[in-house]
Amino acid sequence: MAKAFGIEWAPLKIPVKRRRQTFLVWIVGSTFMFGHIFCVLVCLFLLYINLFTRIFLLLYLAWIYMIDKDTPHRGGRYFPAMRRLKVWNYCAEYFPLRLIKTHELDESKNYLFGCHPHGVMAVGSTGNFASEATGFSKHFPGLTVHLITLNIQFKIPFLREFLLAMGICPASRESLKHILTKMGPGHSCVVLVGGASEALEARPGNYTLVLKNRKGFVKIALKTGASLVPVFCFGENDLFKQYPNPEGSYLRKIQTKVKDIATFSPPLFYGRGIFQYTFGLVPFRKPVHTIVGRPIHIVANTDPSIEDIENLHQRYLEGLKEIFEEYKEKFGIDKDKHLEFI
Q: How far, in Å, CA of 15 to CA of 51, rounded?
């Protein structure tokens, strides 16, 4: 590695396979960050070209906002072939991503996976549960998993079709209840419980989870009878560095205000570039190990009490702690480090 002008440049002689991995991760990451902008620009371009493209766009918009508007909340349009595209394998190999199974999951049941931490780009949850890059269906045969993301994503033309094809669904009670009760045994959800708030905590060496007052997913599990499964992605917070934004700081106040208005957070982060390692929007090449923990089996209760919710929430927290304490030293985390819930 050569360093010039304060920049650490990548060697010229790097295997084509690694170059390909980096490029594809950059493409996918850019889609994550700017895909909505690109889709809006495509719409404007279609309006500009000619009468035919304008009519096509207007018909498409009428279809998604009037006729097809409920599809995202009804399990989406799941195309397994989309999850098996080779591009996801190249992206998973870049870090690499690893999915580690600790217990058998019965295909006759429905599961609600809680995935932590969110990280900046939710790489672990997306790579493991929205694609077959790490072999989810081989680890857990008979299960069909749906990653849950922001509702606003499904308002964006063209982007929504891509998400639906991947089996991704919106974060609404209606959506989760439909998947867990109407689509049959094995259909399960993956929820990034910490959400946008937790993305603001994503930095190397930080193990703070926004979970103390997040109990809506527990209530849904109780009402539907879906088993809760804690999941922890070791290495997720190591993929980017984030500018300091402690609670009470001016930056954090701005970020929180944007999150409250737009429903997503704007972390000021940086990674590496395609040809250098000093700055950029490509995640660092760090391993991410996703541990699927012990399922918490429950009996459906259509009217759970506050005590029922609190007890199950506490069991879930203990399940996450169990994963972290068992595997932390294996993945290079100091034994004195512990999970913190806020």
A: 48
With beta carbons less than 8 A apart as the criterion, state whether 269 and 240 touch: yes
- Report pTM: 0.93
DSSP lists the bridge partners of residue 190 as 113, 147
CB 272 within 8 A of CB 284: yes
Measuring CA to CA, which residue among 101, 118, 102, 115 is closest to residue 146? 115
The string of pLDDT tens digits covering residues 310-333 is: 999 999 999 999 999 999 999 999
Both tokens of 201, joined, read 């905590």
Rounded-to-integer distance, Cα 119 and Cα 115, Å: 10
Q: How far apart are CA 126 and CA 130, in angstroms?
A: 5
Angle subtended at Cα 129 by Cα 319 and Cα 238, rounded to the nearest 5 degrees = 70
Token pair for 27:
């493409």
If you count DSSP H runs as helices and E runs as strands, how many of each does the chain have, helices first? 12, 13
Cis peptide before 185 (omega within 30 of 0): no
**Domain assignments of the chain as residue spans, ordered by start:** 2-341
